[in-house]
Amino acid sequence: MSYNTFGRMFRFTTWGESHGPALGATVDGVPPGVPLSEDFIQRFLDRRRPGTSKHTTQRREPDQVRILSGVFEGMTTGTSIQLMIENTDQRSKDYGDIATSFRPGHADITYHLKYGVRDYRGGGRSSARETAARVAAGAVAQAVLAAILPDVRIIGYMVQMGALHLDRSRFDAAAINDNPFFLPDAAAVGAWSDYLDGIRKDQNSVGAAIEVLVQGCPPGLGAPIYAKLDTDLAAAMMSINAVKAVEIGEGMAAAALTGTDNADEIRMGPDGPAFLSNHAGGILGGISTGQDITVRFSIKPTSSITTPRRSINAHGEEIEVITKGRHDPCVGIRAVPVAEAMAACVILDHLLMDRAQTGGRRGQIG
Amino acid sequence: MSYNTFGRMFRFTTWGESHGPALGATVDGVPPGVPLSEDFIQRFLDRRRPGTSKHTTQRREPDQVRILSGVFEGMTTGTSIQLMIENTDQRSKDYGDIATSFRPGHADITYHLKYGVRDYRGGGRSSARETAARVAAGAVAQAVLAAILPDVRIIGYMVQMGALHLDRSRFDAAAINDNPFFLPDAAAVGAWSDYLDGIRKDQNSVGAAIEVLVQGCPPGLGAPIYAKLDTDLAAAMMSINAVKAVEIGEGMAAAALTGTDNADEIRMGPDGPAFLSNHAGGILGGISTGQDITVRFSIKPTSSITTPRRSINAHGEEIEVITKGRHDPCVGIRAVPVAEAMAACVILDHLLMDRAQTGGRRGQIG
Amino acid sequence: MSYNTFGRMFRFTTWGESHGPALGATVDGVPPGVPLSEDFIQRFLDRRRPGTSKHTTQRREPDQVRILSGVFEGMTTGTSIQLMIENTDQRSKDYGDIATSFRPGHADITYHLKYGVRDYRGGGRSSARETAARVAAGAVAQAVLAAILPDVRIIGYMVQMGALHLDRSRFDAAAINDNPFFLPDAAAVGAWSDYLDGIRKDQNSVGAAIEVLVQGCPPGLGAPIYAKLDTDLAAAMMSINAVKAVEIGEGMAAAALTGTDNADEIRMGPDGPAFLSNHAGGILGGISTGQDITVRFSIKPTSSITTPRRSINAHGEEIEVITKGRHDPCVGIRAVPVAEAMAACVILDHLLMDRAQTGGRRGQIG
Amino acid sequence: MSYNTFGRMFRFTTWGESHGPALGATVDGVPPGVPLSEDFIQRFLDRRRPGTSKHTTQRREPDQVRILSGVFEGMTTGTSIQLMIENTDQRSKDYGDIATSFRPGHADITYHLKYGVRDYRGGGRSSARETAARVAAGAVAQAVLAAILPDVRIIGYMVQMGALHLDRSRFDAAAINDNPFFLPDAAAVGAWSDYLDGIRKDQNSVGAAIEVLVQGCPPGLGAPIYAKLDTDLAAAMMSINAVKAVEIGEGMAAAALTGTDNADEIRMGPDGPAFLSNHAGGILGGISTGQDITVRFSIKPTSSITTPRRSINAHGEEIEVITKGRHDPCVGIRAVPVAEAMAACVILDHLLMDRAQTGGRRGQIG
Questions:
Q1: How far apart are CA A29 and CA A149, in angstroms?
Q2: Which of B238, B304, B316 sits opposite A230 (nearest CB)?
Q3: Residues 187 to 226 of C: which have CB under 8 A from any D CB?
Q4: Span D128-149, pLDDT tens digits
Q5: What integer pLDDT is reported at residue A206 of this predicted model?
Q6: Which of A72, B65, D218, D355 has its CA 20 to 30 A from that of D185?
Q7: Residues 274 to 293 of C: which have CB under 8 A from any D CB?
Q8: Distance from chain centroid for Cα C108
């Protein structure tokens, strides 16, 4: 509801520019008595960290998080948690030539038009570096979920990179963290690597599609009409830099289905309702069904490429822009841990909202 | 931020169940001194009204709106506006058999699980009837936009219904309001009509995709990072019943693009920046560029069909469900004016937020 | 956070003008499964209703509430509740002469300056009639509290009217509802009645002070730093028409106390901490202690009096204003049920917020 | 609306504990293009800084603020501003004995009950040290006000300390900043100093009352019904540690007035309405009149005194508590710059909200 704040009961506000002294997240609404350490958060940040493979920017940031408040003797206290990451590898000189020029496809021009003044170094506030703060906030959400909803598991992975698509028949969750693409198919990693090498050598970049799976989410989360679980997940993902679409369950493909195809039939299982399919992606009427929640989104190719593009500058002159610096040929890769973080925040937020309103009680079946 | 409230500065809260005495919207944050009448709002409601063609539910509701507050002598006063629509054609007996049974693909089961108690008549709160209240609120937004941003124009239309796709080479905005499908291609209406007749005769329903175009939106609307214009548009559309995906600009197709393809190059036009393409859909970094804004979303087929589906009831018994009553074979049709209403609310909300923060000043080019 | 909305988790938005067709409250965030009826709400409204004694306005409004949504078969469903009260006794002609003139001490001039247009009839939106909507919303809160916090009891009463003060040594809660002043001292009613008769005969009005006691509130409600329980109670009371001050516990008198006097010492009682005094008014650090919560506020005398006062009109002319119509000589009287309603909303809101964050768990003593 | 966030459009979230590594404020909704420097903010912090006279705690904190984001080349960019103050003089050992004991009149016991775990060092989150973050946020508000509403001036001062009252006939604004009491009467400083010396020597503390005057505020700020200007000022002041009452204009004294006394009569002045008195304290119907706004509040005596008080500890044992450490004998003194900061934030927030809704247009008189 506020410009730099995400969430309702569990809320975080991010701050910081790409090349300022630091960035971070102020996290509020955290339940007390939850174990939380810098090491725990760091594990999540390390998954997103640049420079870990040849396929991500060579900017080398340790992205070391510090907890400045809200945790005492290893436990959350219920007060606001400040998470700070210092910027240690800002090479501002790389970016001097974009002080007054606008990269096509980039937020340079819209920040200029809206605010009149902007920190142009490294994209300033519009840099994907902001997503480190999201990952830190998401780690807090994961810690709370581990304490109060231990069965929930949030898994992100790539399903498309440019012309390449995941072969879903080969889906293997165990492979995800063993390759630089968060790809659930170990056998395809070589081809994906070659493909992206080609993109980079062409001085180009490429888009991607990411999927996030939330397993173990209980039924009943989501607050219709305007705080539906899918509404908030859509907002969460769309707020990530470069995202251009969000799908739940069948997504855009639902437009082609008939009612008989689409309905997820229900039988009684040992523990309650058992759905025979999951076209809905785990959400009906904005409320979780208890099935796996599936969210998918696209990431556009980064606009920071070394191939010259026609543009203008703040003086109204027509120019050609070549973006030097250290940019990811596929920013979608590092969006995976970011999306997991956002999903964790949404699930926790809705868990807190639900226990506010219903006290956690559930309607009975049988 | 609240369950039944949408918006930040321009906000509306909807209330009402499908078969209760009335439904409506409480609209707040409305600028004063704007001409507004029941007739003006009614024109928008009439576009969404059921029973206007054989392709929508035969439920006959006049959907007559009353303004109960916030307007004096034909002008908004700046106080909260209550818009009420009485329900006059509730045939509750049609729905008695679903009091304890759950339609597959419908919110019946999730409302039951979350709340324990629900108004099952006609889907109660989860009925698409709630969208009438959105349309009424959107009409207020349209009135305000007409007063303070008169160049903006919001146009919704169908681009897909099941197996049928709009031929974009034949796009004709003038045709949209002359056919029951909001289809911008007069020549295709016959085929779409036959197709939907077939669906209905098969006791089935079908999905759809809708596109909304916002023309004349000035640059600078949108408040990064978490109140981005596209974030709020995504939330707005995803909150509509049965929506399963939202796309901005290239949408999911962005995943397949390269950076050279995707970047919208810029030249100087007579009135400032002139973009040579619009892959971005009019939004960069969450802020409007001044180009047309394009939003697209899918609507799943309604789950209320007369073909029997396997399900369970609240007693835990396995049953077959046949949904009688008067249901649209393609709920996507009536989603068009709903989506326009949501877009109008988002644009106005961001206009107000922007003038709060920046006072409406813009960075200069040239 | 919004203009016409009060509350965080349990929220209500009021709408309606004094002489419009109706007014009401849209209540959101209500827990499901709570018994609620129009009769229950009506009992609260009847306590505030005008025309019940010679000491309140002779405007005769039945103030009959209708529940239009959110309740099904006598139970809350968790969806938004619309409460509507139709205006049946609007004598607009009484107010015609104030269309362009400004009553000194009244909101006429500030509404005019801010909005340019206003419904001047009966004060429009700034009329104390708006408080009927608060009372209706408060009744919903009371219903929920009765279900989930049955020990809580909220009692309002007058402690001052102009020159007259309650003799606290004679405090008798049982007397409150047996006299038109909500005065907890039956023996003083005659003197208060004579005093107010004199005020009215002098064509004057008089201020008042009200106290609200919340008994049975558990410890732990309140969310520091900016959603402290006392902060929200202060906002709740200050938002009531004509309120000029709010005190918690010792209130302004705390300025004169020393630390030794002010500290509420603690011993162990049979059920936990037992405080030896209650200077704090039941709240420490913004969180309830478990003691009685005491809130006190002043109400200024109504500015609508028949004694001529110097003023101006919208044409910039200097005039004398005499306010005819049917006004209370002491609006403070009817503020008592309003204040109880606001207190009920705050307590419930914090109860929901607390169970969101802490799950209702409490730190142990002993 | 959130636990640690204050404000609607101009919002700040504070974080940090008394003895943690740092504390600060995350400020959001700041208009772009406003000059802002650490030096400017520091001037406000220095007024609140402890250790500047014998009458405040001898804790020696330089309270040096750092701007970590949102300002570029000396100008606000419209993005979130992080203000950090490192804690450099934490003597945790002073507080070890209160790890499990509860000071009477202090938030120790309520934090324990609510959260189960708390940072007990120096009061942790409930320490008045949090107010440094408010002052920093308030300085940002002052910078913005200087840019867009340059005539506004916010002046705080003490009007009471225990048994001593300001003699208003001797009010001299010029004296306020020349004495350690923020007292607008230079001649009384000696007596106040002697009085407070006596309190401290008695191992005691004392309450105070503070007044804040907002001069030059234009008419039209305030958003009835639930975001009234006085409502938000009341919440702002009541949220400050140890505040027990807030008054606007006549405050509690309004209860004793008659309508003829209380009405502020109006004549035409050279620039529009001229009020002949200001009982209202500059606010009618929740909207500013253009007169001086007057807010007054009480501060209770600090509960951290060296005189033994009866209490209990977390083990349920009855104990005596003597609070060592370095505490202010009158915390009200340092509340003056804090209250000014809160008033600045409220005025700016309402200025932004007003220009969102009305575009800054005003109704005409004459």
A1: 17
A2: B238
A3: 199, 202, 204-209, 219-220, 222-226
A4: 999 999 999 999 999 999 999 9
A5: 97
A6: D218
A7: 276, 279-281, 283-290
A8: 22
The torsion region of residue D73 among left (phi > 0), alpha (psi -120 to 50) and beta comes to left
Paired with C295 in beta bridges are: C212, C248
d(CA C344, CA D146): 41
Look up residue D363 and give its two tokens: 């109704």
Average pLDDT (A352-365) is: 95
Other beta carbons within 10 Å of C169:
6
Contact assignment for A273 to B312 by CB distance below 8 Å? yes
DSSP-assigned states of every residue in D58-92:
-------EEE-SSEETTEE-SS-EEEEEE-----G
| B130: Cα separation from own chain's centroid | 11
d(CA D15, CA D341): 17
pLDDT at B58 over 70: no
DSSP 3-state assignment of C275? strand
Cα–Cα distances in angstroms (integers) from residue A168 to residues A159, A160, A183, A336, D74, in the given order:
8, 11, 11, 17, 52
pLDDT at D295: 98
Model pLDDT, residue A163 = 98
Contacts D356 to B, Cβ<8 Å: 9, 29, 352-353, 355-356
Residue D283: list chain C partners with CB under 8 A: 110
C255–D209 CB contact, under 8 Å: yes
ipTM above 0.90, yes or no: yes
Cβ-based burial of B92 (10 A; exposed 0-12, middle 13-18, buried ≥19): exposed
C104 neighbors D356 (Cβ within 8 angstroms)? no
In terms of pTM, does the model score above 0.90?
Answer: yes
- pLDDT tens profile C291-310: 999 999 999 999 888 889 99
The CA distance from D136 to D341, in Å, is 8
The 10s digit of each residue's pLDDT in C251-292 is: 999 999 999 999 999 999 998 999 999 999 999 999 999 999
Nearest residue to C289 via CA among D244, D109, D102: D109
Tell which residue, B178, B185, B135, has the closest CA to residue B160.
B185
Contacts of C294 (CB under 8 A, 6+ apart): C211, C212, C213, C214, C248, C249, C278, C281, C282
Q: What percent of chain D has pLDDT over 70?
A: 95
Q: In degrees, to the nearest 5, what angle opens at C-alpha D58 toward C-alphas D52 and D61?
A: 70
**CB nearest to A29's CB, from D3, D23, D119:** D3
Q: Alpha-carbon distance B249 to B222, whole Å?
A: 16
CA distance C262 to C275: 12
CB pairs under 8 A between C and D: 413
Residues 9 through 68 of chain B touching chain A, CB cutoff 8 Å: 14
**Cα separations in angstroms, B271 against A107, A117, A260, B365:** 20, 21, 52, 10
CB-count burial class (<10 Å; 0-12, 13-18, 19+) for C217: buried
Amino acid B95: pLDDT: 60
For residue range A172-191, what is the model confidence (pLDDT) as tens digits? 999 999 999 999 999 999 99
Q: CA-to-CA distance for B338 and B241, rounded, in angstroms?
A: 10
Question: Chain C closest CA to D73's CA: distance in Å?
Answer: 32
What is the pLDDT, as a whole number, of residue D353? 97
Question: Is the CB of A250 less than 8 angstroms away from the CB of B244?
Answer: yes
Task: Estimate to the nearest angstrom the gap between the alpha carbon of B267 and the chain centroid.
Answer: 34
Band of pLDDT at residue D189, cut at 50, 70 and 90: very high
Rg (alpha carbons) of chain C, rounded to whole number = 21
Range with lowest mean pLDDT among A28-37, A148-157, A353-362, C89-98: C89-98
Residue A359 confidence (pLDDT) above 90: yes
Q: Cβ B77–C11 below 8 Å, yes or no?
A: no
For residue C195, count other CB atoms closer than 10 A to its CB. 17
